[in-house]
Structure formats: structure tokens, C-alpha cells
Q: What sequence folds into this?
């Protein structure tokens, strides 16, 4: 896997056209316990399926900072985000009764140093730690499965 530093601000895919993709920024929350990588997943609000924290671009925030904010809001995670995009995955976001919105989520590694009991979306989501294999098996998106399976925190040295 090739790693590159993110140098770009939020992407725009024609927000007024419902058929064009939107960009989101996602955190891949991880920790290493006894030499084993663990991934924190959260449930989506509506369907309760397992996902990684992600959200819309925010004015004045880099993609990595936006991803870190989502890790806090959705999972109560605090730690270090790396300004390094691991990859991109696509999915269809359901918004009410409207047509699904095509989304591209750019994924940033987030080393979790601690989790808080009290965080903004604690009453709307669950969070849970999984091995990489377990986490990959619980998410639906093929590209995200691959990112989780191939993630190696040792590649973050020097970042």
C-alpha cells in the first residue's frame, strides 16, 4: 500500500446535482494491544450497521481534522489523526425519503489514545473494538473492507 500526505482541501463534486458524488472524510480509529491491531467501528444512526466515523467537509478544517472530529462525535475517541489519506471508498448515503446520494469517503488513520463515556452521539450509536479481520467482515463496502484488512500502522512511522 502506498501512503501519501493529503494536501488538498475538501473536494467538490457539484453539490447541486443529486446524481454527482459528494465527498466525506472518515477516520479509521485504531489501537495496538499486545502487538495486535484493533479497529473501532460505530453503528450508523438509522440502520445500525457497522461503519467507521465519517462526515461532511467543514469550512476551515483539513480533511484529517474533519475525520478526527467525526471520531470524537460518533465514537468518543480522542487521539492523533494522521494527515495521510489511506484510500477512498464509495457508498450510497440514504437521506430521508430522497434518492440515495453517491458518496466518496477519504479515510485517515486515527490512533486512539482514549475513549470517553460522554460524547455527542453516545445515545444514537454504539462503538466496539474489533480485530482487523472482524472489522473488515462487519462493514459492507468492498473498498473499505480492503482498507481495513491491509492497514498497517507500522507504515505511519515518520508521519
A:
Amino acid at each position: 500500500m502506498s501512503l501519501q500526505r493529503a494536501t488538498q482541501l475538501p473536494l467538490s463534486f457539484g453539490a447541486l446535482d443529486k446524481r454527482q458524488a459528494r465527498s466525506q472524510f472518515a477516520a479509521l480509529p485504531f489501537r495496538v494491544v499486545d502487538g495486535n491491531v484493533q479497529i473501532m467501528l460505530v453503528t450508523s444512526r438509522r440502520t445500525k450497521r457497522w461503519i467507521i466515523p465519517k462526515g461532511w467537509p467543514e469550512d476551515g478544517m483539513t480533511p484529517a481534522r474533519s475525520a478526527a472530529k467525526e471520531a470524537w462525535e460518533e465514537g468518543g475517541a480522542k487521539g492523533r489523526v494522521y494527515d495521510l489519506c489511506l484510500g477512498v471508498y464509495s457508498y450510497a448515503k440514504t437521506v430521508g425519503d430522497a434518492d440515495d446520494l453517491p458518496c466518496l469517503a477519504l479515510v485517515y488513520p486515527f490512533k486512539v489514545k482514549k475513549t470517553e463515556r460522554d460524547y455527542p452521539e453516545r445515545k444514537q450509536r454504539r462503538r466496539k473494538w474489533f480485530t482487523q479481520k472482524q472489522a473488515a467482515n462487519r462493514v459492507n463496502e468492498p473498498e473499505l473492507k480492503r482498507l481495513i484488512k491491509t492497514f498497517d500502522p507500522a507504515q505511519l512511522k515518520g508521519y
Observations:
- Helices lie at 63-75, 132-138, 142-150.
- The first strand starts at residue 4 and ends at 5.
